[in-house]
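sry for the spam today, last one i promise. struct tokens for design, 182 residues
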């Protein structure tokens, strides 16, 4: 096996993560991320690989996850808000944004929240980008935010739960495919 292909199936209001062998197309493992309320757009959550883990957020379950790259076993879960964008990671910290307008920093080993900051508006589903220790993220309030990771990590973890967005009752089938070499 030369590598795995990771797909996220967000059909109906259910989220499934698949790993496929790139040589044969066989499913190596699959795991249910879980069901939840249907969201109106960007239903997938986008996986990212960092240090033998697959990280993905779910707009359905409103949680962020770490899975073992080889086995697909869930290593930890961080309950949050609708997460539609792919995360980024560096130096043992994974950063992600959510639809409630927050950026979070978690320890990649155990999912402990290291810091959180509320930014303006609903953050763009394109996700954050990390350039020279600065986290850049777009927002639907027509701004792009630049946040040095050192400044973010000086902030305390979020103390209260973000307000939940009402979930519209829409039914849809959706399938995304991500090809990630490793």
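last one done:
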């Amino acid at each position: 096996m030369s590598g795995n292909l990771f797909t996220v199936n967000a059909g109906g209001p259910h989220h499934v993560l698949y790993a496929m062998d790139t040589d044969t197309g066989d499913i190596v493992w699959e795991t249910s991320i879980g069901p939840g309320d249907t969201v109106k757009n960007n239903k997938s959550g986008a996986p990212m690989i960092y240090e033998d883990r697959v990280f993905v957020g779910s707009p359905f379950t409103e949680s962020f996850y770490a899975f073992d790259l080889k086995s697909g076993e869930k290593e930890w879960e961080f309950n949050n808000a609708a997460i539609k964008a792919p995360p980024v990671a560096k130096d043992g910290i994974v950063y992600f944004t959510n639809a409630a307008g927050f950026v979070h920093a978690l320890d990649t080993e155990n999912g402990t929240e290291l810091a959180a900051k509320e930014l303006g508006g609903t953050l763009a589903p394109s996700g954050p980008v990390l350039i020279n220790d600065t986290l850049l993220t777009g927002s639907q309030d027509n701004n792009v935010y630049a946040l040095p990771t050192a400044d973010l990590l000086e902030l305390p973890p979020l103390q209260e739960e973000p307000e939940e967005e009402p979930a519209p009752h829409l039914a849809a089938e959706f399938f995304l495919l991500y090809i990630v070499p490793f």
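Residues 149-153 form the longest helix (5 residues). ok im logging off now
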